[in-house]
Amino acid sequence: MKVTIIGLGLIGGSIARSLKRSGDVCITAVDNNEQVLLDAVSLGVIDRKASVYDLEDSDVVYLCLYPDAALEFTEKNKNRFGKNTVLTDVCGIKTYIYPKLKAIADEAGFTYIGSHPMAGKEQSGFSASDASLFYGASYIIVDNGENNEAVGILKELALRMGFGKIVFATSDEHDKAIAYTSQLPHVLACAYVLSPMCSKHDGFSAGSYRDVSRVADINAKLWTELFISNKESLTDEIDTLIKNMEAFKSLIKEGNAEELKAVLQNAGDNKRKYG
User: Fold this and answer.
1) pTM, entire model
2) For site-directed labelling of 189, which of 77, 89, 109, 240 has its Cα 20 to 30 A away?
């Protein structure tokens, strides 16, 4: 199988490393950074650097770019993809990008399936990529009535990479869930460290500070695109969070220990029940 990766950053590099470890896959890559490509070849992470002309005979192409860059690349090179090529993206939003990529693929005559590896780090770039990044993680396939053979290929490759769970969702289901599980925690963490007290936490912080603030070490360009592209679902979740925070604020301000204890108990029950 020939796999081409467009963008050897954290996710693209980790896909290359994990598939190379699984064996029986020829991996090529395209990246704007020539040094990254040379490093990947010398380390044996990819078999060789590729060009857009390699898209035609690739079995699977992983589009590991920011959303707008992914759309731009696909539109520009739509006539270079082979008719039997399966294109997938790894973007963290789907209602924005899915219909656009699907329309391009349908027009040009190749297959596009949306996907999203649920794994990452605070660090970015090829140097942060890791063959074990995906072990036990979820791999989401956006299933809006897709080509079953192409879905099967992506599922097989995901399992080779070490993903522990394959999840199927529509683009709308994906974005509503991601707004809560991924985007809202990033908003919360960033809002938290914008407090004037952040500069004074040293010596007074333990696990709670670390856990809440961890994802505030953020890639601002990427997450700006993701937040705005999913603004309806994300702002709904922010509204819910603000409502819950206002309820806590009122109970604490009033000194209403009985109701505060009940709310805290309910929160603890939810965490224990749902993980």
Assistant:
1) 0.88
2) 89
User: What are the residues facing 4 on neighbouring strands?
Assistant: 28, 61
Q: Is the pLDDT of residue 273 over 90?
A: yes
Evaluate if residue 144 carries a pLDDT over 80: no
**pLDDT at site 124:** 83
What was the pLDDT predicted at 120? Answer: 82
Burial annotation 92-111 (CB, 10 A radius, 16+ → b, else e): bbbbbbbeebbebbeebebb
Q: Report the distance separating Cα 49 and Cα 27, nearest Å.
A: 9
DSSP state of 12: H
| Three-class secondary structure assignment of 149-217 | HHHHHHHHHHHHHCCCEEEEECHHHHHHHHHHHHHHHHHHHHHHHCCHHHHHCCCCCCHHHHHHHHHHC
Tokens of 5: 């990766």
Taking the C-alpha atoms of residue 92 and residue 184, their distance in angstroms, rounded to an integer, is: 13
> For residues 257 and 263, what is the distance between their CA atoms, to the nearest angstrom?
10
28-54 mean pLDDT = 95
The rounded percent of the chain whose pLDDT value lies above 90 is: 92
Q: Please say if the pLDDT value at position 227 is more than 80.
A: yes
Instruction: Give the list of residues 6+ apart from residue 80 with CB closer than 8 angstroms, or none.
Output: 52, 53, 55, 56
Number of neighbouring beta carbons within 10 Å of residue 232: 10
Q: Which of 260, 271, 14, 237 is nearest to 124 (CA)?
A: 14
Distance CA(123)–CA(129), nearest Å, equals 9
Which distant-in-sequence residues (6+ apart) come within 8 Å of 159 by Cβ?
A: 166
Task: Please tell me the distance from the alpha carbon of residue 66 to that of residue 224, in angstroms, as a whole number.
Answer: 10
